[in-house]
Amino acid sequence: xxxxxxxxxxxxxxxxxxxxxxxxxxxxxxxxxxxxxxxxxxxxxxxxxxxxxxxxxxxxxxxxxxxxxxxxxxxxxxxxxxxxxxxxxxxxxxxxxxxxxxxxxxxxxxxxxxxxxxxxx
Length: 121
Description:
Order of helices and strands: EHEHEEEHEHEH
Strand content: 15-25%
Distance between the termini: 21 Å
Structural class: alpha/beta
CATH superfamily: Response regulator
CATH architecture: 3-Layer(aba) Sandwich
């Protein structure tokens, strides 16, 4: 049996974290949710298969986190999907090295499709 794919989600909105986390778990993913994006960088022991980061979080910017993850040897191969309430940020998400971008509010099916696509690459 294959190991569950794990996803780390960072968003400073607890409602989004809970809802998306629950839905992803129902889809069979192992979810690690955090309200503080900085824990994503500090948490190096159990790396996820994919990161989903909110661009605007209190205390950290998902684009900065993405750049750090993509420049670190241990995490540069892990796909990053940046999410934001602003559609205008897609270009800056790409500039930060994100593998994909999703504007809020989003359909869970759209997120699942992006996760599956990123995990296949």
